[in-house]
Structures
1.
Amino acid sequence: MEVTGEEDIILPQTCVSIIIPVFNAEEFLERCIASVAQQSYENLEIILVDDGSTDGSTAICREWEKKDKRVVYIRQENSGLGNARNTGIKAAKAGYITFLDADDWFEPGFIEKIILAMLESGSDVGQCDIYYVNSKTMLREAVKLRFDGLTVSCRDDKSVVNKSRLFAWGKIFKKELITRLNFYFPEFTYEDTCVPAIIAGANLISYIPEPLINYFRNRPGSLSNNSGNIGDIGKVLKWLFEKLHELGKYEDYSLEYKKIALGQFRFACRKFGGMNDEAAARALLQLEGLIAELIPELKGISQKKYLAFDSPILASALDKALPYAEQAITDISGVNGIVTFKVSPFPIQEHIQLITIPENMKSLKNNETAGFNIAELIMEKL
């Protein structure tokens, strides 16, 4: 591994290390690095981990190393995103760490707004809302995290593990927290699913209700679009299961872990279930079996139907909170219509789980927040 830059420098604790794994990203890399270099908060260490690029990415990294003294350039043999992030963690000298993928980019105030909130509240983690950017049209959609306040206690609100989303990016972490948890990313696809282990180990989280990061969505060639990596979803769920046990956190976060497992199964079925690919179908069945081993009460999760109110907002909330598949709601009728979640390639069996919604929440069914609250209550009954 080749490392360049000042290796003996001691950075102030208020400095932030931005870890950017780079692999054949020349089309996007200049925009990414420029968005970091032009941050309003200048106390930065910019770590570019070149994971064996064979295109022009290496030249772009070296050019930035020459013109910005804050850049540390590391080149290593190709070993994947998780390993590249781990290399960055080991090299980071600042008191705070954030991650940025090479095709994403920051808004100018990303670091300043989050780090100042963290310093003021003493938080272990800071995060913000997100811009989802359509890779074809470049249109942006602002997506809000569902936090109840600007500073959230992980001990008081266990659901923050899920509300924080399964992304390494869009967050700033105290390096001390990552070190204390001995956290390193697993070296297989979907490694971001392990981030809840960091959130579970945190005390306070700061939230900035403003989209400050741009996520380049559905880029062709992304590893997450490869059905051959379905097995890695099971590996990462097992990793997280074992890590939460190792940290003594599983009992506290067992419901949240269940939601994560369901969400990953839903993601896999939605993304790969309709491919008419026998190998993908077998992998989805194996994933379902692994989830049932980890959480026995979820055996047969591909064959359920749910009873819910006839409310478009509630249906949308259920679609996000009940992660069972293709998520096509095929029939909603009447006040207590049956919401059917189709799972392809799995058969739907005549199994209906009745779920009772508290009577006093019926009047709130057309309120978006209430819809999500109801969906959360349903999750607790699963």
Note: The first helix runs from residue 26 to 37.
2.
Amino acid sequence: MSAFINNPMEMINGNININLPSCRLYKSFLPTFAPLINNISVTSSVAGQYSLVYITGRNFLSNGITYVNFGPYTNIPICYYSSFNISFVIPLNLPAGDYNVVVVNIYNGQFSAQVKNSYPGNLNYSNPILYTLT
């Protein structure tokens, strides 16, 4: 009749005293959901003309969770390529002037929100990049 083995090492080498090293303790932290802009493809264009702007950075999210604010114009939709690359179109009806480009992520505390529920979300803003319409 076989006996129940609690420790397989006892079966091989008899009673072995295994000293495991103690683990180092690190303070844990949650990853940031704030987007960061590293670069934009162009920093100026002519007012009233079609302009596509590519943004490189990090922490961009898909599915309508990330959008762009262009000065006082908010919630401009983006085209999502990856968490590092997005693009948007400059609105055609803007007057000439200087505008800050800011990427915004809406974080609602869940990675996969349930369908047909509304979540207020926390807004996470990127660093601003100056854009000039001439």
Note: The beta strands are 36-40, 44-45, 52-58, 66-70, 73-76, 79-82, 85-89, 97-107, 122-125, 129-133.
